[in-house]
Write a structure and sequence with these properties.
Strand content of chain B: 15-25%
Largest sheet of chain A: 4 strands, antiparallel
Radius of gyration of chain B: 29 Å
Largest interface: A-B, 24 and 32 residues
Distance between the termini of chain B: 69 Å
Shape of chain A: elongated
Number of strands of chain A: 7
Structural class of chain B: alpha+beta
Oligomer: heterodimer
Number of helices of chain B: 19
Chain lengths: 159, 521
């Protein structure tokens, strides 16, 4: 059987994900807050407020601490002449193969937080699915994108 | 050029076709009805959900008649503005109320000219003519009502020369025979059987349920109470009676629905495409180019499997402005005839592939996975209804379904085709070509890893979002092998690898090979 993919993504992904994950998880805080209003108004039971609060706080703590490192450790990719392998996942580990001649387009993108860490992600699109290699150093991301698009062009000529 | 063609094929028809001409006035009516039908669902929704009150727009017959008159006037105006003619080897159609549109379709771009007739057309001895072009979809043109002679004249003069079968069929008289012979057609008996075992049952049931829930809009509360009183028994008996009644109505609806859409089902084989024609009142024609087929599926519905029948589907990718979709290749077929059907209609997919099944230790996961949604439903019922504890009776159902899902699960591949068999409710066997796989994943969660199991998901391009087939809880090695199989150079690979990679024992491969052969799995 094939070994795991060789390339790791940039280690700076961990601090970047801590910020994005931590901030993103704040979104869920509105659930206990809204529920709390109802509970105070006497429309709903009070005890779920505590449960919900514990859950969202726990979620934020995990997102800002351990989850980014697990995710980084699990992420690997490999670009071969005919196929691209990705492996990632925290609870569900997923190994994905994308035949190069099925790739329709590939691009890089970057959000504001990723930009402050000089990180970009590469997005690979087929006729059915979209895949992302997140958090590569800007130069690496450009290189990966160009390489994949070169391979895809060459593969198209083959078929 | 024009006069040449005419004199060759039908000298008895003068040049009158080069003059712009209107359709038969019946077209105004058919176009009104078509608009009405397109609006049917919103209208029904407005009527049942919004307009039941006194102030509702459609509770007033006055408004309804204004609305209908408006539609009719629009239909008449459309008829007045619609002209067609045949000129310079082109079908030229001009139409449009405010914006004048011209649609000129040259003969060489016309793929199919289809003559059919609905009820209205038949009443006036007319036909409608449908022109399909290579692009499919938007480019097609339709003349809703014209005489059969005119339609035949257009068909003769605009059919492509290279289509020998079309030319051969032209001599025949009636519209039904005006075509090459279909490879397969659906008999009325089988159609009826298809209706009675149709899977659209659930959909129909939910529609009936919604209407039933809206009953108080149409009926007086007192009347409903009276009806309820007349079922003097316990509340459970009452609900069961109502339930059985609803199921029966839904069943009848699904039979009618199946007959409407799949009556006269015929499938034709052409050099580069399949042509399907179906429908009772409204005839639909679907062309599926072979080059667009992404997957073929055999589906044995839960009511059809016991009587040995199945449905065949084909998934195709979009082209032009037509989006990809899943099409019924044949609605009702004996399972034992499916193999022959596939080898005739889609020979590429006629394969004998050895299947691997998940190991015995996966059974538990299949059962648990099936029980989770059931558990949620049981909880809900228990909480909502006084006699909700009866929902516990569904636990054995869930366990049985989980077991049959496990039994159905299988996968296999040969050099260029992968097959995955799975069951949700219906048992489905999907065939996908290697070069149609857009991406493939092998995945496992924590519980699967503990048991050394993996799942496989194959993604293909069908519809706008794509479609996927999954083989759940197989041996890790099997799944990883299937993932690698998608590599374009998989075939040339294993030999090279076993030479190079010394530390990996070859037993991996022999064991998976043995598994392929071992029927016990």
């Amino acid at each position: 059987m094939r070994p795991d993919p060789e390339q790791k993504i940039d280690i700076k992904a961990i601090p970047a994900w801590r910020i994005t994950g931590g901030l993103g998880s704040l979104f869920w805080w509105f659930v206990p807050v809204v529920y709390g209003f109802f509970a105070l108004g006497g429309v709903a039971e009070r005890w779920p407020v505590i449960l919900l609060t514990v859950l969202v706080v726990l979620n934020t703590i995990l997102q800002a601490s351990i989850i980014p490192s697990i995710r980084w450790r699990r992420w690997s990719y490999q670009i071969d002449k005919h196929e691209i392998y990705l492996q990632h996942g925290i609870f569900i580990i997923r190994r994905t193969l994308i035949p190069v001649n099925r790739i329709q387009h590939v691009d890089t993108r970057q959000g504001p937080i990723m930009r402050s860490f000089d990180l970009s992600s590469v997005t690979i699109t087929t006729a059915a699915t979209t895949h992302e290699i997140p958090a590569l150093n800007d130069e690496v991301a450009d290189e990966v994108r160009n390489r994949i698009s070169d391979l895809a062009r060459a593969a198209d000529q083959d078929v | 050029m024009k006069s040449e063609t005419e004199s060759q094929i039908s000298p008895e028809q003068p040049t009158r076709m080069s003059e712009p001409r209107r359709q038969h006035p019946v077209a105004a009516l058919t176009s009104t009805l078509r608009t009405l039908r397109e609006l049917l669902i919103p209208l029904v929704l407005v009527f049942f959900l919004g307009g039941g009150r006194d102030d509702g727009l459609f509770s007033n017959p006055y408004y309804i008649s204004i609305f209908l008159t408006f539609l009719l006037v629009a239909g008449v105006m459309q008829w007045m503005r619609f002209t067609y003619r045949v000129e310079d080897d082109e079908l030229r159609i001009e139409y449009g109320l405010l914006v004048r549109k011209r649609s000129y379709i040259p003969r060489h771009r016309i793929q199919v000219i289809d003559i059919s007739s609905g009820i209205l057309q038949r009443m006036f001895g007319l036909v409608s003519l449908n022109v399909q072009t290579a692009g499919g979809g938007a480019e097609e043109a339709r003349i809703s009502a014209l005489t059969i002679e005119d339609a035949r004249w257009i068909k003769e003069n605009l059919s492509r020369d290279d289509s020998a079968e079309k030319q051969a069929a032209l001599g025949d008289g009636t519209e039904a025979k005006e075509k090459p012979k279909p490879e397969y057609r659906l008999s009325w008996n089988t159609l009826f059987l298809a209706g009675t075992t149709s899977g659209s049952f659930g959909v129909a049931l939910s529609i009936v349920g919604t209407l039933f829930a809206q009953m108080n809009v149409v009926m007086d509360d007192d009347v409903i109470l009276e009806i309820i009183d007349s079922f003097a028994g316990t509340s459970a008996t009452f609900f069961i009676t109502i339930g059985i009644g609803l199921i029966f109505i839904a069943w009848i609806l699904s039979i009618v629905g199946t007959i409407l859409s799949y009556a006269n089902f015929e499938i034709y084989k052409r050099p580069k495409e399949l042509l399907i024609s179906r429908g009772l009142f409204e005839k639909r024609q679907i062309t599926i180019p072979y080059s667009r087929i992404q997957a073929v599926r055999i589906q044995e519905g839960i009511l059809r499997q016991p009587i040995g029948y199945c449905t065949l589907y084909v998934d195709s990718a979009g082209y032009g402005d037509q989006s990809g979709r899943s099409t019924v290749l044949f609605p009702m077929l004996k399972l034992k005839d499916a193999k022959e059907f596939i080898s005739t209609m889609v020979p590429d997919y006629s394969r004998e592939i050895d299947l691997v099944t998940p190991p015995a230790r996966a059974l538990r996961r299949y059962i648990i996975r099936t029980m989770i949604p059931f558990a949620a439903l049981i909880g809900l019922f228990y909480w909502l209804f006084p006699f909700g504890h009866w929902a516990l009776l569904t636990i054995p159902v869930a366990v049985t379904l989980g077991y049959y899902r496990y039994r159905a699960a299988a996968a296999g591949h040969d050099d260029d085709t992968i097959t995955i068999r799975y069951r949700n409710l219906a048992k489905t066997t999907a065939f996908v070509k290697r070069h149609r796989v857009q991406s493939v994943s092998g995945w496992d969660n924590w519980f699967q890893r503990r048991r050394g199991l993996k799942s496989l998901t194959v993604n293909i391009a069908s519809s706008d979002t794509g479609a996927s087939f999954s083989a759940l809880d197989f041996e890790e090695d099997t799944v990883l092998d299937y993932v690698e199989w998608v590599e374009p150079n998989y075939l040339s690979k294993p030999r090279a690898e076993s030479n190079e990679v010394g530390e990996k024992p070859d037993s991996d491969k022999t064991s998976s090979a043995e598994r392929l052969l071992d029927p016990g799995f």
